[in-house]
Amino acid sequence: MKVAVLSGGVGGARFVQGLVEVAEDVTVVGNVGDDVEVLGLHVSPDLDSILYALARLNDEERGWGRAGESWRALETVGELGGDTWFQLGDLDLGLHIVRTQALRSGVPLSSVTLRLARALGIETRVLPATDDRLRTWIGTPVGDFPFQVWFVARGHRDEVDAVRFEGEADATPAPGVFDALTQAELLLVAPSNPYVSVAPILAVPGIREALASRRVPAVAVSPLIGGRAVRGPADRMLERLAGGTSPAHVAEQYAGLIDALVVDEADADDLDGLGEVRPIVTRTLMTDLDARKRLAEAALGAVVA
Amino acid sequence: MKVAVLSGGVGGARFVQGLVEVAEDVTVVGNVGDDVEVLGLHVSPDLDSILYALARLNDEERGWGRAGESWRALETVGELGGDTWFQLGDLDLGLHIVRTQALRSGVPLSSVTLRLARALGIETRVLPATDDRLRTWIGTPVGDFPFQVWFVARGHRDEVDAVRFEGEADATPAPGVFDALTQAELLLVAPSNPYVSVAPILAVPGIREALASRRVPAVAVSPLIGGRAVRGPADRMLERLAGGTSPAHVAEQYAGLIDALVVDEADADDLDGLGEVRPIVTRTLMTDLDARKRLAEAALGAVVA
Protein backbone atom coordinates (compact mmCIF):
# COMPACT_ATOMS: atom_id res chain seq x y z
CA MET A 1 0.00 0.00 0.00
CA LYS A 2 1.28 3.44 -0.96
CA VAL A 3 1.30 5.71 2.07
CA ALA A 4 2.18 9.40 2.22
CA VAL A 5 2.73 10.96 5.63
CA LEU A 6 3.15 14.61 6.56
CA SER A 7 5.59 14.87 9.42
CA GLY A 8 7.31 17.34 11.69
CA GLY A 9 10.35 16.51 13.79
CA VAL A 10 10.76 14.42 16.88
CA GLY A 11 7.24 13.04 17.45
CA GLY A 12 6.61 12.72 13.76
CA ALA A 13 9.96 11.02 13.26
CA ARG A 14 9.14 8.43 15.93
CA PHE A 15 5.83 7.72 14.25
CA VAL A 16 7.50 7.39 10.87
CA GLN A 17 10.04 5.01 12.38
CA GLY A 18 7.18 2.69 13.36
CA LEU A 19 5.26 3.30 10.15
CA VAL A 20 7.98 2.06 7.82
CA GLU A 21 8.06 -1.18 9.81
CA VAL A 22 4.40 -1.92 9.09
CA ALA A 23 3.88 -0.30 5.66
CA GLU A 24 5.93 -0.99 2.58
CA ASP A 25 5.75 2.00 0.29
CA VAL A 26 6.02 5.12 2.44
CA THR A 27 6.81 8.66 1.33
CA VAL A 28 7.51 11.14 4.10
CA VAL A 29 6.79 14.81 3.39
CA GLY A 30 8.74 16.74 6.00
CA ASN A 31 8.40 20.24 7.40
CA VAL A 32 11.03 22.78 6.44
CA GLY A 33 9.46 25.80 8.14
CA ASP A 34 11.85 25.44 11.06
CA ASP A 35 14.93 25.20 8.88
CA VAL A 36 17.56 27.64 10.03
CA GLU A 37 20.90 29.03 8.94
CA VAL A 38 23.14 28.74 11.95
CA LEU A 39 26.91 29.24 12.02
CA GLY A 40 26.72 29.48 8.24
CA LEU A 41 25.18 26.04 7.96
CA HIS A 42 21.76 25.08 6.66
CA VAL A 43 20.04 23.01 9.33
CA SER A 44 16.79 21.15 8.63
CA PRO A 45 15.87 19.93 12.10
CA ASP A 46 12.69 18.07 11.14
CA LEU A 47 14.15 16.32 8.12
CA ASP A 48 17.16 15.38 10.22
CA SER A 49 15.01 13.98 13.01
CA ILE A 50 13.28 11.83 10.41
CA LEU A 51 16.54 10.69 8.81
CA TYR A 52 18.15 9.91 12.15
CA ALA A 53 15.07 8.02 13.37
CA LEU A 54 14.88 5.98 10.17
CA ALA A 55 18.60 5.22 10.29
CA ARG A 56 18.22 4.37 14.00
CA LEU A 57 20.85 6.96 14.81
CA ASN A 58 18.52 9.15 16.87
CA ASP A 59 19.07 9.83 20.53
CA GLU A 60 16.05 8.38 22.31
CA GLU A 61 16.75 9.96 25.67
CA ARG A 62 17.44 13.51 24.57
CA GLY A 63 14.71 13.20 21.98
CA TRP A 64 16.54 15.03 19.21
CA GLY A 65 19.87 14.71 17.42
CA ARG A 66 22.11 11.71 17.25
CA ALA A 67 22.88 9.10 19.88
CA GLY A 68 26.43 9.16 21.18
CA GLU A 69 26.77 12.78 20.16
CA SER A 70 29.65 15.01 21.27
CA TRP A 71 29.87 18.79 21.31
CA ARG A 72 33.54 19.61 20.81
CA ALA A 73 33.25 21.82 17.74
CA LEU A 74 30.44 23.84 19.34
CA GLU A 75 32.42 24.23 22.56
CA THR A 76 35.26 25.66 20.50
CA VAL A 77 32.85 27.95 18.70
CA GLY A 78 31.74 29.24 22.09
CA GLU A 79 35.31 29.71 23.32
CA LEU A 80 36.02 31.74 20.19
CA GLY A 81 33.02 33.99 20.66
CA GLY A 82 30.67 32.37 18.14
CA ASP A 83 26.98 31.62 18.55
CA THR A 84 26.08 28.55 20.57
CA TRP A 85 22.36 29.07 21.12
CA PHE A 86 21.57 26.33 18.62
CA GLN A 87 22.99 23.00 19.69
CA LEU A 88 24.96 21.32 16.92
CA GLY A 89 26.82 18.17 17.84
CA ASP A 90 29.95 16.96 16.09
CA LEU A 91 28.18 14.10 14.31
CA ASP A 92 25.27 16.36 13.42
CA LEU A 93 27.68 18.98 12.06
CA GLY A 94 29.04 16.48 9.58
CA LEU A 95 25.58 16.19 8.03
CA HIS A 96 24.98 19.95 8.04
CA ILE A 97 28.33 20.55 6.38
CA VAL A 98 27.59 18.08 3.59
CA ARG A 99 24.08 19.42 3.05
CA THR A 100 25.13 23.07 3.13
CA GLN A 101 27.89 22.48 0.63
CA ALA A 102 25.50 20.70 -1.73
CA LEU A 103 22.88 23.45 -1.40
CA ARG A 104 25.50 26.12 -2.09
CA SER A 105 26.55 24.30 -5.22
CA GLY A 106 22.97 24.46 -6.43
CA VAL A 107 21.63 21.02 -5.53
CA PRO A 108 17.97 21.31 -4.37
CA LEU A 109 17.13 20.34 -0.79
CA SER A 110 15.04 17.38 -1.96
CA SER A 111 17.98 15.92 -3.91
CA VAL A 112 20.33 16.48 -0.98
CA THR A 113 17.87 14.82 1.37
CA LEU A 114 17.47 11.78 -0.88
CA ARG A 115 21.26 11.59 -1.17
CA LEU A 116 21.70 11.75 2.61
CA ALA A 117 18.99 9.14 3.11
CA ARG A 118 20.71 6.81 0.65
CA ALA A 119 24.07 7.31 2.38
CA LEU A 120 22.41 6.45 5.70
CA GLY A 121 20.94 3.27 4.21
CA ILE A 122 17.36 4.53 4.36
CA GLU A 123 15.02 3.08 1.73
CA THR A 124 12.01 5.21 2.63
CA ARG A 125 11.54 8.28 0.46
CA VAL A 126 12.02 11.37 2.65
CA LEU A 127 11.12 14.63 0.92
CA PRO A 128 11.00 18.22 2.10
CA ALA A 129 7.58 19.78 1.53
CA THR A 130 9.30 22.28 -0.74
CA ASP A 131 12.72 23.06 -2.13
CA ASP A 132 11.89 26.73 -1.87
CA ARG A 133 12.70 28.93 1.07
CA LEU A 134 9.76 28.71 3.49
CA ARG A 135 10.26 29.91 7.05
CA THR A 136 7.91 29.85 10.01
CA TRP A 137 7.55 33.09 11.98
CA ILE A 138 5.92 33.23 15.39
CA GLY A 139 3.91 36.26 16.45
CA THR A 140 3.94 36.81 20.20
CA PRO A 141 2.90 39.59 22.58
CA VAL A 142 6.53 40.75 22.62
CA GLY A 143 7.15 40.64 18.89
CA ASP A 144 7.62 38.40 15.87
CA PHE A 145 10.39 35.84 15.91
CA PRO A 146 11.82 33.37 13.42
CA PHE A 147 10.73 29.93 14.58
CA GLN A 148 14.02 28.77 16.03
CA VAL A 149 14.60 32.04 17.85
CA TRP A 150 11.22 31.61 19.51
CA PHE A 151 11.55 27.88 20.04
CA VAL A 152 15.20 27.41 20.99
CA ALA A 153 16.73 30.75 21.88
CA ARG A 154 13.66 31.92 23.84
CA GLY A 155 12.66 28.43 24.95
CA HIS A 156 9.13 28.87 23.47
CA ARG A 157 8.16 30.78 26.59
CA ASP A 158 6.26 33.47 24.70
CA GLU A 159 2.59 32.83 24.08
CA VAL A 160 1.74 32.51 20.41
CA ASP A 161 -0.76 34.86 18.81
CA ALA A 162 -0.05 34.02 15.21
CA VAL A 163 2.00 31.81 12.95
CA ARG A 164 2.96 32.79 9.44
CA PHE A 165 5.09 31.25 6.75
CA GLU A 166 7.54 33.49 4.98
CA GLY A 167 7.80 32.51 1.34
CA GLU A 168 4.64 30.41 1.24
CA ALA A 169 3.11 32.24 -1.73
CA ASP A 170 6.06 31.43 -3.97
CA ALA A 171 6.73 27.92 -2.74
CA THR A 172 6.03 24.87 -4.85
CA PRO A 173 5.97 21.26 -3.68
CA ALA A 174 9.34 19.56 -3.99
CA PRO A 175 9.67 17.06 -6.84
CA GLY A 176 7.81 13.89 -5.93
CA VAL A 177 5.62 15.45 -3.25
CA PHE A 178 2.55 16.09 -5.36
CA ASP A 179 2.70 12.65 -6.96
CA ALA A 180 3.17 10.99 -3.60
CA LEU A 181 0.10 12.75 -2.21
CA THR A 182 -2.12 12.11 -5.21
CA GLN A 183 -1.04 8.51 -5.78
CA ALA A 184 -1.13 7.43 -2.13
CA GLU A 185 -3.73 4.90 -1.03
CA LEU A 186 -3.60 6.36 2.47
CA LEU A 187 -2.70 9.85 3.62
CA LEU A 188 -1.37 10.28 7.14
CA VAL A 189 -0.59 13.25 9.34
CA ALA A 190 1.98 12.31 11.97
CA PRO A 191 1.53 13.25 15.66
CA SER A 192 3.22 16.60 15.17
CA ASN A 193 2.38 20.14 16.24
CA PRO A 194 -0.47 21.24 13.94
CA TYR A 195 0.60 24.89 13.93
CA VAL A 196 4.34 24.77 13.49
CA SER A 197 5.02 21.30 12.08
CA VAL A 198 2.09 20.40 9.86
CA ALA A 199 0.72 23.82 8.91
CA PRO A 200 4.00 24.87 7.19
CA ILE A 201 3.69 21.75 5.01
CA LEU A 202 0.06 22.51 4.20
CA ALA A 203 1.04 26.13 3.46
CA VAL A 204 2.91 25.08 0.32
CA PRO A 205 0.43 25.82 -2.49
CA GLY A 206 -0.88 22.54 -3.87
CA ILE A 207 -0.34 20.38 -0.80
CA ARG A 208 -3.46 21.40 1.14
CA GLU A 209 -5.45 21.12 -2.09
CA ALA A 210 -4.10 17.63 -2.74
CA LEU A 211 -5.34 16.53 0.67
CA ALA A 212 -8.66 18.37 0.36
CA SER A 213 -9.43 16.71 -2.99
CA ARG A 214 -8.29 13.23 -1.98
CA ARG A 215 -10.14 10.09 -3.05
CA VAL A 216 -8.48 7.94 -0.39
CA PRO A 217 -8.72 7.98 3.42
CA ALA A 218 -6.70 10.53 5.36
CA VAL A 219 -5.87 9.95 9.01
CA ALA A 220 -4.17 12.27 11.48
CA VAL A 221 -2.63 11.15 14.73
CA SER A 222 -3.16 13.57 17.61
CA PRO A 223 0.05 14.75 19.30
CA LEU A 224 -1.84 15.19 22.60
CA ILE A 225 -2.40 12.71 25.39
CA GLY A 226 -5.13 13.68 27.81
CA GLY A 227 -5.09 17.15 26.29
CA ARG A 228 -1.37 17.60 26.99
CA ALA A 229 1.56 17.64 24.62
CA VAL A 230 4.09 14.87 25.24
CA ARG A 231 6.71 17.53 24.60
CA GLY A 232 6.74 21.01 23.18
CA PRO A 233 4.14 23.76 23.12
CA ALA A 234 1.34 22.15 21.05
CA ASP A 235 -1.11 22.13 23.97
CA ARG A 236 -0.47 25.75 24.93
CA MET A 237 -0.85 26.81 21.32
CA LEU A 238 -4.11 24.91 20.86
CA GLU A 239 -5.47 26.32 24.11
CA ARG A 240 -4.70 29.88 23.09
CA LEU A 241 -5.34 29.74 19.35
CA ALA A 242 -8.17 27.19 19.15
CA GLY A 243 -9.69 27.55 22.61
CA GLY A 244 -9.01 24.03 23.86
CA THR A 245 -7.02 20.83 23.59
CA SER A 246 -9.68 18.22 23.00
CA PRO A 247 -9.56 15.85 19.99
CA ALA A 248 -12.12 18.15 18.33
CA HIS A 249 -9.73 21.09 18.69
CA VAL A 250 -6.98 19.05 17.06
CA ALA A 251 -9.26 17.82 14.27
CA GLU A 252 -10.35 21.40 13.60
CA GLN A 253 -6.80 22.19 12.49
CA TYR A 254 -7.22 19.65 9.70
CA ALA A 255 -10.80 20.54 8.79
CA GLY A 256 -11.70 19.03 5.43
CA LEU A 257 -8.38 17.26 5.22
CA ILE A 258 -8.86 14.15 7.35
CA ASP A 259 -11.43 11.39 7.74
CA ALA A 260 -10.20 9.98 11.03
CA LEU A 261 -8.17 11.08 14.03
CA VAL A 262 -6.16 8.68 16.14
CA VAL A 263 -6.48 9.77 19.78
CA ASP A 264 -5.16 8.44 23.01
CA GLU A 265 -7.20 6.34 25.41
CA ALA A 266 -6.81 9.22 27.86
CA ASP A 267 -8.95 11.32 25.52
CA ALA A 268 -11.62 8.66 24.92
CA ASP A 269 -14.18 10.49 27.06
CA ASP A 270 -13.67 13.77 25.23
CA LEU A 271 -14.73 12.95 21.70
CA ASP A 272 -17.53 15.47 21.23
CA GLY A 273 -17.46 17.83 18.30
CA LEU A 274 -15.47 15.66 15.93
CA GLY A 275 -18.25 15.85 13.35
CA GLU A 276 -17.49 13.62 10.39
CA VAL A 277 -14.01 12.85 11.64
CA ARG A 278 -14.00 9.32 13.00
CA PRO A 279 -12.03 8.82 16.21
CA ILE A 280 -9.66 5.88 16.48
CA VAL A 281 -8.85 5.33 20.13
CA THR A 282 -5.62 3.60 21.07
CA ARG A 283 -2.50 4.09 23.17
CA THR A 284 -0.44 6.74 21.47
CA LEU A 285 2.65 7.19 23.68
CA MET A 286 5.56 6.17 21.46
CA THR A 287 7.95 4.90 24.12
CA ASP A 288 9.68 2.32 21.96
CA LEU A 289 9.64 0.85 18.48
CA ASP A 290 6.86 -1.60 19.34
CA ALA A 291 4.65 1.24 20.55
CA ARG A 292 5.42 3.17 17.37
CA LYS A 293 4.54 0.20 15.20
CA ARG A 294 1.28 -0.35 17.06
CA LEU A 295 0.36 3.31 16.66
CA ALA A 296 1.15 3.18 12.95
CA GLU A 297 -0.94 0.02 12.61
CA ALA A 298 -3.86 1.78 14.28
CA ALA A 299 -3.59 4.56 11.73
CA LEU A 300 -3.27 2.09 8.83
CA GLY A 301 -6.31 0.28 10.17
CA ALA A 302 -8.42 3.19 8.99
CA VAL A 303 -8.23 1.87 5.43
CA VAL A 304 -9.63 -1.57 6.15
CA ALA A 305 -11.99 -0.41 8.89
CA MET B 1 62.41 45.69 20.99
CA LYS B 2 59.87 45.68 18.16
CA VAL B 3 60.20 42.54 16.10
CA ALA B 4 58.32 41.59 12.95
CA VAL B 5 58.52 38.01 11.74
CA LEU B 6 57.36 36.49 8.48
CA SER B 7 56.10 33.00 9.14
CA GLY B 8 54.62 29.99 7.44
CA GLY B 9 52.90 27.18 9.30
CA VAL B 10 54.25 24.41 11.47
CA GLY B 11 57.99 25.20 11.60
CA GLY B 12 57.38 28.92 11.61
CA ALA B 13 54.77 28.53 14.32
CA ARG B 14 57.21 26.65 16.53
CA PHE B 15 59.79 29.37 16.04
CA VAL B 16 57.24 32.07 16.84
CA GLN B 17 56.25 30.18 19.98
CA GLY B 18 59.83 30.49 21.21
CA LEU B 19 60.25 34.03 19.90
CA VAL B 20 57.41 35.51 21.94
CA GLU B 21 59.04 34.08 25.06
CA VAL B 22 62.24 36.02 24.50
CA ALA B 23 61.02 39.17 22.72
CA GLU B 24 58.35 41.50 23.99
CA ASP B 25 56.81 43.29 21.05
CA VAL B 26 56.32 40.76 18.27
CA THR B 27 54.15 41.05 15.18
CA VAL B 28 53.73 37.90 13.16
CA VAL B 29 52.98 38.27 9.45
CA GLY B 30 51.56 34.95 8.36
CA ASN B 31 51.25 33.26 5.00
CA VAL B 32 47.79 32.95 3.47
CA GLY B 33 48.85 31.44 0.14
CA ASP B 34 47.85 28.00 1.35
CA ASP B 35 44.43 29.09 2.57
CA VAL B 36 41.74 26.83 1.20
CA GLU B 37 37.97 26.61 1.00
CA VAL B 38 37.10 23.11 2.09
CA LEU B 39 33.63 21.80 2.92
CA GLY B 40 32.42 25.37 2.52
CA LEU B 41 34.77 26.59 5.24
CA HIS B 42 37.65 29.03 4.94
CA VAL B 43 40.74 27.35 6.37
CA SER B 44 43.97 29.31 6.99
CA PRO B 45 46.35 26.50 7.91
CA ASP B 46 49.41 28.66 8.55
CA LEU B 47 47.62 31.28 10.63
CA ASP B 48 45.97 28.48 12.59
CA SER B 49 49.29 26.75 13.24
CA ILE B 50 50.59 30.04 14.62
CA LEU B 51 47.50 30.65 16.76
CA TYR B 52 47.48 27.11 18.10
CA ALA B 53 51.21 27.22 18.87
CA LEU B 54 50.91 30.56 20.66
CA ALA B 55 47.90 29.36 22.65
CA ARG B 56 49.78 26.12 23.37
CA LEU B 57 46.92 24.17 21.85
CA ASN B 58 49.00 22.68 19.05
CA ASP B 59 49.57 18.97 18.67
CA GLU B 60 53.32 18.48 19.05
CA GLU B 61 53.36 14.87 17.90
CA ARG B 62 51.26 15.20 14.77
CA GLY B 63 52.88 18.55 14.07
CA TRP B 64 49.72 20.30 12.87
CA GLY B 65 46.27 20.96 14.28
CA ARG B 66 45.18 20.82 17.89
CA ALA B 67 46.21 18.47 20.65
CA GLY B 68 43.48 16.11 21.83
CA GLU B 69 41.71 16.48 18.52
CA SER B 70 38.83 14.21 17.46
CA TRP B 71 37.45 13.58 13.98
CA ARG B 72 33.78 12.77 14.45
CA ALA B 73 32.31 15.45 12.20
CA LEU B 74 34.69 14.56 9.38
CA GLU B 75 33.92 10.86 9.77
CA THR B 76 30.26 11.70 9.36
CA VAL B 77 31.06 13.83 6.33
CA GLY B 78 32.79 10.80 4.83
CA GLU B 79 29.90 8.47 5.64
CA LEU B 80 27.56 10.90 3.91
CA GLY B 81 29.66 11.10 0.77
CA GLY B 82 31.41 14.43 1.43
CA ASP B 83 35.06 15.31 0.87
CA THR B 84 37.51 14.12 3.49
CA TRP B 85 40.81 14.71 1.73
CA PHE B 86 41.54 17.68 3.97
CA GLN B 87 41.70 16.70 7.63
CA LEU B 88 39.52 18.91 9.80
CA GLY B 89 39.18 17.90 13.43
CA ASP B 90 36.18 18.71 15.59
CA LEU B 91 38.03 21.34 17.63
CA ASP B 92 39.59 22.78 14.51
CA LEU B 93 36.18 22.92 12.83
CA GLY B 94 34.91 25.18 15.58
CA LEU B 95 37.52 27.77 14.63
CA HIS B 96 36.89 27.42 10.91
CA ILE B 97 33.16 27.84 11.44
CA VAL B 98 33.63 31.03 13.46
CA ARG B 99 36.12 32.47 10.97
CA THR B 100 34.08 31.55 7.92
CA GLN B 101 30.97 33.11 9.35
CA ALA B 102 32.82 36.33 10.14
CA LEU B 103 34.40 36.47 6.67
CA ARG B 104 31.00 35.91 5.04
CA SER B 105 29.56 38.78 7.03
CA GLY B 106 32.28 41.02 5.61
CA VAL B 107 34.84 41.06 8.42
CA PRO B 108 38.38 41.09 6.94
CA LEU B 109 40.66 38.14 7.65
CA SER B 110 43.02 40.32 9.69
CA SER B 111 40.21 41.40 12.03
CA VAL B 112 38.96 37.84 12.36
CA THR B 113 42.47 36.65 13.14
CA LEU B 114 42.98 39.29 15.82
CA ARG B 115 39.59 38.39 17.28
CA LEU B 116 40.47 34.69 17.37
CA ALA B 117 43.84 35.44 18.91
CA ARG B 118 42.20 37.52 21.63
CA ALA B 119 39.67 34.77 22.34
CA LEU B 120 42.55 32.31 22.67
CA GLY B 121 44.33 34.60 25.12
CA ILE B 122 47.15 35.44 22.72
CA GLU B 123 48.75 38.83 23.22
CA THR B 124 51.06 38.66 20.22
CA ARG B 125 49.77 40.41 17.13
CA VAL B 126 49.15 37.79 14.44
CA LEU B 127 48.34 39.23 11.03
CA PRO B 128 47.75 37.67 7.64
CA ALA B 129 50.08 39.09 5.00
CA THR B 130 47.00 40.31 3.18
CA ASP B 131 43.23 40.40 3.56
CA ASP B 132 42.93 39.92 -0.17
CA ARG B 133 42.57 36.60 -1.89
CA LEU B 134 46.05 35.30 -2.62
CA ARG B 135 46.49 31.64 -3.51
CA THR B 136 49.60 29.61 -4.16
CA TRP B 137 49.61 27.43 -7.27
CA ILE B 138 52.18 24.74 -7.88
CA GLY B 139 53.39 23.98 -11.38
CA THR B 140 54.51 20.36 -11.80
CA PRO B 141 55.40 18.08 -14.71
CA VAL B 142 51.83 16.73 -14.58
CA GLY B 143 50.02 20.04 -14.36
CA ASP B 144 49.25 23.03 -12.17
CA PHE B 145 47.59 22.46 -8.81
CA PRO B 146 46.23 24.69 -6.06
CA PHE B 147 48.66 24.44 -3.16
CA GLN B 148 46.61 22.17 -0.92
CA VAL B 149 45.71 19.84 -3.76
CA TRP B 150 49.42 19.41 -4.47
CA PHE B 151 50.44 19.32 -0.82
CA VAL B 152 47.70 17.34 0.87
CA ALA B 153 45.61 15.55 -1.75
CA ARG B 154 48.64 14.53 -3.83
CA GLY B 155 50.99 14.30 -0.85
CA HIS B 156 53.47 16.73 -2.50
CA ARG B 157 54.82 13.86 -4.56
CA ASP B 158 55.02 15.87 -7.77
CA GLU B 159 58.25 17.72 -8.41
CA VAL B 160 57.84 21.47 -8.49
CA ASP B 161 58.79 23.42 -11.60
CA ALA B 162 57.18 26.73 -10.65
CA VAL B 163 55.26 28.48 -7.93
CA ARG B 164 52.87 31.32 -8.64
CA PHE B 165 50.53 33.38 -6.51
CA GLU B 166 47.04 33.95 -7.83
CA GLY B 167 45.87 37.43 -6.91
CA GLU B 168 49.30 38.83 -6.01
CA ALA B 169 49.04 41.83 -8.33
CA ASP B 170 45.90 43.10 -6.62
CA ALA B 171 46.83 42.22 -3.05
CA THR B 172 47.67 44.85 -0.47
CA PRO B 173 49.25 44.27 2.92
CA ALA B 174 46.69 43.71 5.67
CA PRO B 175 46.18 46.64 8.07
CA GLY B 176 49.14 46.81 10.43
CA VAL B 177 51.51 44.77 8.29
CA PHE B 178 53.31 47.64 6.59
CA ASP B 179 53.67 49.58 9.85
CA ALA B 180 54.95 46.51 11.65
CA LEU B 181 57.58 45.93 8.98
CA THR B 182 58.71 49.55 8.76
CA GLN B 183 58.67 50.23 12.50
CA ALA B 184 60.35 46.99 13.56
CA GLU B 185 63.81 47.15 15.09
CA LEU B 186 64.46 43.63 13.84
CA LEU B 187 62.99 41.77 10.90
CA LEU B 188 62.90 37.99 11.02
CA VAL B 189 62.06 35.27 8.56
CA ALA B 190 61.00 32.13 10.37
CA PRO B 191 62.37 28.68 9.42
CA SER B 192 59.66 28.11 6.84
CA ASN B 193 59.68 26.90 3.25
CA PRO B 194 61.06 29.80 1.20
CA TYR B 195 58.97 28.98 -1.88
CA VAL B 196 55.54 28.20 -0.50
CA SER B 197 55.53 29.78 2.96
CA VAL B 198 57.64 32.94 2.77
CA ALA B 199 57.45 33.79 -0.95
CA PRO B 200 53.64 34.20 -0.85
CA ILE B 201 54.12 36.78 1.91
CA LEU B 202 56.82 38.59 -0.04
CA ALA B 203 54.59 38.48 -3.13
CA VAL B 204 52.16 40.96 -1.59
CA PRO B 205 53.14 44.28 -3.21
CA GLY B 206 54.85 46.44 -0.60
CA ILE B 207 56.10 43.70 1.69
CA ARG B 208 59.22 42.72 -0.27
CA GLU B 209 59.94 46.42 -0.78
CA ALA B 210 59.62 47.08 2.95
CA LEU B 211 62.24 44.43 3.66
CA ALA B 212 64.49 45.53 0.80
CA SER B 213 64.52 49.15 2.01
CA ARG B 214 64.94 48.31 5.69
CA ARG B 215 67.16 50.37 8.01
CA VAL B 216 67.29 47.62 10.63
CA PRO B 217 68.82 44.15 10.61
CA ALA B 218 66.94 41.32 8.95
CA VAL B 219 67.64 37.73 9.87
CA ALA B 220 66.27 34.55 8.32
CA VAL B 221 66.37 31.16 9.97
CA SER B 222 67.09 28.31 7.58
CA PRO B 223 64.49 25.53 7.61
CA LEU B 224 67.14 22.99 6.63
CA ILE B 225 69.41 20.90 8.84
CA GLY B 226 72.34 19.35 7.07
CA GLY B 227 70.72 20.29 3.79
CA ARG B 228 67.52 18.38 4.63
CA ALA B 229 64.08 19.66 5.54
CA VAL B 230 62.91 18.65 9.02
CA ARG B 231 59.56 18.04 7.38
CA GLY B 232 57.96 18.87 4.07
CA PRO B 233 59.38 19.37 0.60
CA ALA B 234 61.66 22.43 1.13
CA ASP B 235 64.84 20.48 0.39
CA ARG B 236 63.46 18.87 -2.77
CA MET B 237 62.22 22.23 -3.99
CA LEU B 238 65.56 23.96 -3.31
CA GLU B 239 67.44 21.17 -5.02
CA ARG B 240 65.29 21.37 -8.15
CA LEU B 241 64.61 25.11 -8.30
CA ALA B 242 67.85 26.54 -6.86
CA GLY B 243 70.28 23.74 -7.64
CA GLY B 244 71.20 22.85 -4.07
CA THR B 245 70.33 22.91 -0.40
CA SER B 246 73.31 24.68 1.14
CA PRO B 247 72.89 27.79 3.32
CA ALA B 248 73.85 29.84 0.26
CA HIS B 249 70.96 28.32 -1.68
CA VAL B 250 68.59 29.27 1.14
CA ALA B 251 70.03 32.78 1.44
CA GLU B 252 69.64 33.25 -2.31
CA GLN B 253 65.87 33.05 -1.87
CA TYR B 254 66.06 36.15 0.30
CA ALA B 255 68.65 38.03 -1.78
CA GLY B 256 68.75 41.66 -0.75
CA LEU B 257 66.26 41.04 2.03
CA ILE B 258 68.41 39.65 4.86
CA ASP B 259 71.67 40.47 6.60
CA ALA B 260 72.16 37.21 8.42
CA LEU B 261 71.07 33.60 8.13
CA VAL B 262 70.76 31.30 11.12
CA VAL B 263 71.97 27.86 10.08
CA ASP B 264 72.32 24.59 11.87
CA GLU B 265 75.62 23.26 13.20
CA ALA B 266 75.24 20.46 10.69
CA ASP B 267 75.65 23.04 7.92
CA ALA B 268 78.64 24.82 9.52
CA ASP B 269 81.08 23.38 6.96
CA ASP B 270 78.99 24.47 4.01
CA LEU B 271 78.95 28.24 4.35
CA ASP B 272 80.48 29.20 1.02
CA GLY B 273 78.69 31.60 -1.25
CA LEU B 274 76.76 33.50 1.41
CA GLY B 275 78.29 36.77 0.22
CA GLU B 276 77.25 39.61 2.49
CA VAL B 277 74.86 37.44 4.44
CA ARG B 278 76.43 36.67 7.79
CA PRO B 279 75.95 33.10 9.02
CA ILE B 280 74.86 32.50 12.61
CA VAL B 281 75.57 28.89 13.47
CA THR B 282 73.58 27.23 16.21
CA ARG B 283 71.40 24.20 16.86
CA THR B 284 68.14 24.76 15.01
CA LEU B 285 66.04 21.64 15.69
CA MET B 286 63.02 22.92 17.60
CA THR B 287 62.22 19.85 19.65
CA ASP B 288 60.75 21.68 22.60
CA LEU B 289 60.03 25.16 23.91
CA ASP B 290 63.56 25.57 25.28
CA ALA B 291 65.05 24.76 21.90
CA ARG B 292 62.65 27.21 20.26
CA LYS B 293 63.60 29.96 22.71
CA ARG B 294 67.31 29.33 22.16
CA LEU B 295 66.85 29.49 18.40
CA ALA B 296 64.89 32.74 18.70
CA GLU B 297 67.62 34.16 20.95
CA ALA B 298 70.22 33.30 18.36
CA ALA B 299 68.24 35.22 15.76
CA LEU B 300 67.69 38.16 18.12
CA GLY B 301 71.42 38.13 18.82
CA ALA B 302 72.01 39.51 15.34
CA VAL B 303 70.99 42.97 16.57
CA VAL B 304 73.54 43.22 19.33
CA ALA B 305 76.25 41.25 17.51
Blueprint of the fold:
The structure is a homodimer of 305-residue chains.
Chain A: E1 2-7, H1 10-22, E2 25-30, E3 36-38, E4 41-43, H2 45-54, H3 72-79, H4 90-104, H5 109-119, E5 125-128, E6 135-140, E7 143-146, H6 147-153, E8 162-166, H7 177-183, E9 186-189, H8 194-202, H9 207-212, E10 218-221, E11 224-225, E12 228-229, H10 234-242, H11 247-252, E13 260-264, E14 278-282, H12 289-304
Helix pairs in contact in A: 1-2, 1-12, 4-5
Outline the structure in words:
- Two copies of one chain form a homodimer.
- By secondary structure, the first copy, chain A, is an alpha/beta fold.
- Chain A has a single domain (2-137, 168-304), classed as CofD-like domains (Rossmann fold, 3-Layer(aba) Sandwich).
- The first copy, chain A, is built from twelve helices and 14 strands.
- In chain A, the strands form four sheets. Chain A has a seven-stranded parallel beta sheet, sandwiched between helices. Chain A has a three-stranded antiparallel beta sheet with strand order 7-6-8.
- In chain A, a hairpin with a 2-residue loop joins strand 6 and strand 7.
- The longest helix of chain A has 16 residues, at 289-304.
- At the A-B interface, helix 3, helix 4 and helix 5 of A face helix 3, helix 4 and helix 5 of B.
